[in-house]
Every structure is written in C-alpha cells, then in structure tokens.
Amino acid sequence: MKSRPTIPDVLDGFVDYLKQHAAWGSLHAVLEDGNVSDRIVRYCLNRAEATGDKEAAELARVLLRMSKTQRLKIDYSAKEDLHLHKVTK
User: Second label for 43, Cα 20 to 30 Å away, from 1, 32, 51, 54?
Assistant: First the structure.
C-alpha cells in the first residue's frame, strides 16, 4: 500500500489546478463542498476520467490516499497559498 501523502508534498499540484478551476472543477464536490467520503472522491475521479480531466483524475487518486481530515484541509491550504501569492506580488 502506498504511504499517505502529506499536504505539503502535494499542495503545489492542487494550487495549480485551483488556479485553472476557481471552483475546483471536477473536484468541486469534495474540495469546495466538503463532501470528503471515499464514495464522493471516487465519483469525482470517475467524472474527471469521463470528461478527460486528467489532472483532476490524478488529484482525485491523491485524495483517495489522504485521510478525510487532510481532504478537508487541502481546500483551505490551497486557497491560503493562492492568497499569499497574490498579496506578495
């Protein structure tokens, strides 16, 4: 089994995706709405694959390896990171 990723290890990928998809695109149900169950993450993964959103599919696979608490925190962490970049520019 693969080890659980840490937020700092994967944050850049989520920030990059959020820059292109302000409401989290294919991951909206998990990251914007806070529905962090495995079932909803799998739904988002299937939706991303069906629509050809390869980046979201990859991030959904990361989310499946994270705890529910981490999934809740990644939205806040990515938005905070974006905000800090805007403030420091």
Answer: 1
pLDDT digits (tens, 9 = 90+) for 35-75: 999 999 999 999 999 999 999 999 999 999 999 999 999 99
CB 44 within 8 A of CB 56: yes
Of the candidates 23, 4, 17, 1, the one whose C-alpha atom is nearest the C-alpha of residue 70 is 4
Q: In this structure, how many other beta carbons lie within 10 angstroms of the beta carbon of residue 52?
A: 9
Residue by residue, what is the 3-state secondary structure of the chain? Answer: CCCCCCHHHHHHHHHHHHHHCCCCHHHHHHHCCCCCCHHHHHHHHHHHHHHCCHHHHHHHHHHHHCCHHHHHHHHHHHHHHHHHHHHHC
